[in-house]
Amino acid sequence: MTHEYDALIDAYRRCGGDERVLADAKIPHLLASGHSVLSMRGADGLEVQTSVTKDGISACLVLGENVSLQRPVHLCFGVLHEEGEQCIVMQVRLRRNSAAHFIAHCFFPNARKVRHVMDATIEIEEGAEMRYGETHYHGPHGGTEVFPKAVVVLGERGRYYTDFTLLEGRVGILVLDYAVQSGRESVAELSARIFGHAQDVIQIKEKIVLEGERSRGLIKTRIALEGDASAEVTGITEGRAAGARGHVDCVEIVKDNAVAKAVPIVFVTHPLAKVTHEAAIGSVDKKQLETLMAHGLSPEEAVGMIVKGILR
Amino acid sequence: MLELKNLCFQAGSRKILDDCSLAVGRGEIHALLGTNGVGKSTLAYIIMGCEGYRPDSGEICYKGEIINRLGISERARLGITMTWQEPVRFEGISVQDYLSPRDGSRDSASYLCLVGLDPELYLHRMVDRCLSGGERKRIELASALALNPQFAVLDEPDSGIDMLSFDDIVHVIRLFREHGASVLLITHRPELAMIADRASQLCGGRIVCNGSPQEVTDFFMAKKCAVCAEVDCDT
Known about the structure:
The structure holds two protein chains of two kinds. Chain A has helices at residues 2-14, 20-23, 286-294, 299-311, and strands spanning 29-33, 36-41, 46-53, 56-63, 73-78, 83-94, 99-107, 113-124, 129-137, 144-154, 159-168, 173-182, 187-196, 201-210, 216-225, 230-239, 245-254, 259-268, 274-282. Chain A is mainly β. Chain A has a ten-stranded mixed β-sheet, covered by helices on one side. Chain A has a nine-stranded mixed β-sheet with strand order 3-4-6-8-10-12-14-16-18, with no helix packed on it. Chain B contains ten helices and ten strands. In chain B, the strands form two sheets. Chain B has a six-stranded mixed β-sheet, sandwiched between helices. Chain A binds chain B through residues 251, 285-288, 290-299, 301, 305-306, 308-312, and chain B through 48, 50-51, 71-73, 76-77, 80-82, 84, 87-88, 90-93, 97, 101-102, 143-144, 147.
């Protein structure tokens, strides 16, 4: 176990994580390798329970009413071997007027045939706020299949912000499926930034249902593709209540033989709701490219700078 | 410094430049006057080597060398740069990165000061839609100055800038020369052309008047050129 822990910490560090947060007694965390929970720590007001089932890991995190965590909760999930599987069923509940920031690292640095499934159910009660930043590193081989799924129920005045990034190394296969149901005057922002290479396959489906009056939703997706990579992004926003406002914003840049597809679906079932969308798909903008080249950058440097900006 | 010899350029069936010749000397600010749609910006793109803007015939000579076949990056390496009439916006690129794109080593703050922008307020902002057209224009001028170019094509640097800032823009244009650059100043405003050392008027795809700024602006305002008379250009 110690060897596995050290190896995971080493991989976590190489993927941009700071292992000191795992040693800090004041910082809550959950560290899992494959289907083993190696380490976990709660905090005042935060209950963390885990169990290993025949299908994988089951985790339950509950934040108490009016509790606002001063430090982020760190979640580290990984598979270090070339082959393996990690299935996690996670339930998160933020009670009334609580607030927490989660920083998740998911890393599969040596993956040649690794499958990672995350099935999350998140309940954010009235006035509560959850921020969830998730960074993935899948290694250089493209042998990872990742299926992150989340169903989020957002109570009145609740706020949910998520930012999924996969910018280093290969993607492999990614099938992301997030759905949010928004209560009255709530705010949901879903952001995903991914760089696909070689034969990577990216499928994203994000949906916000604006059920509550004056609820707000934003789906923002930024994808860069090169080689033979492909991506299909479906952003769905439904406006079902008075004053609901939603927006879907998708940018996909392609190089080489990459293929990109965006499917924004926006519709309203209430006359006082409004949802909008914008999507830009294609090669790097010619005028942007020429502007940077006129500033002395080579075409490769200019493309790199534009892509880096889009994914920032 | 730069000499355009008998340039012809056609877009589809429309002749944009027709035997256009122009010379800009070393250290000179040369104003290119013309009404909307006469091909001033096209000429700028041709000088910079933008895609789709290679002349059908004629020569672009820079420091005695024909550079027709060179691309934008190669021309930029020779010291040529340009600012666009409508500068493009970039998502996720900060003003700092834009002014010093390779390694951040340039003193970006001082160039922002030169164009009248407070570095503390602007360096970390993004060059995106959050900036107004006028702010974007000033940042474009700062970025061109930061390159320390030898030849700068400034395409309507005053457009989108409020009238109160006109003197600031004039100051910035003169800075290019103080920093050792020759400038082709594209404008349709006679008052801006008056700051140049020499001027030309483009009309009907060719230079119809060349001389001192006063001579050319008088000619321009009086609609004296034969092409204007024929097509009733609105100056």
